[in-house]
């Protein structure tokens, strides 16, 4: 930075040690006139073309030191099989966008997700496959093309600022007990809850999306023996609603969709012998739909 003679600047750049923050410099000319300049360091161009595969802890740490904020391809963490080699992804906290999928594979060994806290956008699917993870939180994730959970150990998935999924969401798990997506409004594909194999146990007792208004595909759950309630208080339009499947006992007692106006396909309840309460609007259903209730 070069100043003209008889001008001054505050604060003095020589006194600043942390240039990662934003600073406002005030330049005063000889005649007393002042002008302010805002200075920030932008890392928007710090991107990596193609996909990144991180197989070991050393590779995770080394990649984190690069300061990368954007991965234009896939970001793959761990491997499908082998020793539990990755215990922390805290080094990946600078990553903000991934152009394709984020895949967390089996050799990620931590019970919590201690990285990716700055991730705002996933252009492909967010896939959680590891069988060690218990709690996955994505505090900054606002949009993704899809979410696929096949982890048998995951208990909680939290995406507190996720507003839209341009594809679908699939949850095929046994220990999942909570999906926290309080502001999710649109899903352009299917929303599906199931278990990996028929007769597998499940910890899921309640499915709730408090802000979800639109599902373009099918909303369905099947094979989950202990589900008790489904709450979609803001849902207005859905392709098909399919609850339950043949040959399985159900504890579902309550289904709430009080604002549903359009069901393009069927509204199907199947083999729900304990169902006691169904909340649907009394009028304003714009599209023809059918309700099929079966007990066998």
Provide structural commentary.
The strands form four sheets. This protein has a six-stranded parallel beta barrel with strand order 12-14-17-20-18-15. Strands 19-21-23-26 form a four-stranded parallel sheet, with no helix packed on it. A three-stranded antiparallel sheet has the order 1-2-3, with no helix packed on it. Among the domains are: 8-39, no CATH class; 47-184, 24 nucleotide stem-loop, u2 snrnp hairpin iv. U2 a', Chain A, CATH 3.80.20. It is globular, with a radius of gyration of 25 Å. The chain has one helix spanning 57-65, and strands at 8-10, 23-28, 34-39, 47-48, 52-54, 70-71, 75-77, 97-98, 102-104, 121-128, 135-137, 143-149, 156-158, 164-165, 169-172, 178-180, 186-187, 191-194, 206-208, 214-221, 229-231, 237-243, 254-256, 262-263, 266-270, 277-279, 290-294. The chain is mainly beta and 296 residues long. The protein is built from one helix and 27 strands. The model has no long low-confidence stretch (mean pLDDT 84). Helices cover 3% and strands 35% of the residues.
CATH architectural group of the domain at 47-184 = Alpha-Beta Horseshoe
Query: Into which percent range does the helicity of residues fall?
Result: under 10%
Oligomer: single chain
- SSE string, helices as H and strands as E: EEEEEHEEEEEEEEEEEEEEEEEEEEEE
Strands ordered across the widest β-sheet: 12-14-17-20-18-15
Main sheet properties = 6 strands, parallel, barrel
CATH hierarchy, class of the domain at 47-184:
Alpha Beta
CATH topology of the domain at 47-184: 24 nucleotide stem-loop, u2 snrnp hairpin iv. U2 a', Chain A
| Class per helix and strand makeup | mainly beta
Instruction: Provide the low-confidence segments as ranges.
Output: none
State the shape: globular
**Beta-strand percent range:** 35-45%
**Rg calculated over all Cα atoms:** 25 Å
Q: Which whole number gives the mean pLDDT?
A: 84
Spatial gap, N to C terminus: 79 Å
Q: Let me know the number of strands.
A: 27
Report the total helices.
1
């Amino acid at each position: 930075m070069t100043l003209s003679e008889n001008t001054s600047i505050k604060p003095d750049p020589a006194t600043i040690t942390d240039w990662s923050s934003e600073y406002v410099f005030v330049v005063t000319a000889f005649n007393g006139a002042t002008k302010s300049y805002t200075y920030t360091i932008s890392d928007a161009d710090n991107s990596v073309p193609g996909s990144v595969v991180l197989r070991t802890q050393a590779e995770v740490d080394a990649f984190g030191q690069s300061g990368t904020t954007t991965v234009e391809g896939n970001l793959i963490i761990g491997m499908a099989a082998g020793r539990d080699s990755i215990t922390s992804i805290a080094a990946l906290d600078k990553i903000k966008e991934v152009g394709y999928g984020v895949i967390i594979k089996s050799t990620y060994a931590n019970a919590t997700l201690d990285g990716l806290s700055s991730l705002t956008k996933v252009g492909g699917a967010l896939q959680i496959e590891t069988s060690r993870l218990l709690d996955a939180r994505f505090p900054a994730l606002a949009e993704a093309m899809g979410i696929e959970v096949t982890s048998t150990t995951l208990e909680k998935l939290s995406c507190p600022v996720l507003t839209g999924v341009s594809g679908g969401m699939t949850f095929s798990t046994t220990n999942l007990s909570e999906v926290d997506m309080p502001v999710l409004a649109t899903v352009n594909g299917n929303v599906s809850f199931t278990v990996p194999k028929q007769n597998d146990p499940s910890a899921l007792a309640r499915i709730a999306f408090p802000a979800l208004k639109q599902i373009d595909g099918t909303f369905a759950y099947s094979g989950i023996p202990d589900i008790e309630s489904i709450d979609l208080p803001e849902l207005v339009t859905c392709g098909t609603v399919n609850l339950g499947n043949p040959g399985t006992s159900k504890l579902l007692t309550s289904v709430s969709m009080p604002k549903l106006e359009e069901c393009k396909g069927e509204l199907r309840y199947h083999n729900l012998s304990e169902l006691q309460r169904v909340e649907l609007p009394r009028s304003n259903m714009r599209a023809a739909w059918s309700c099929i209730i079966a007990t066998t």
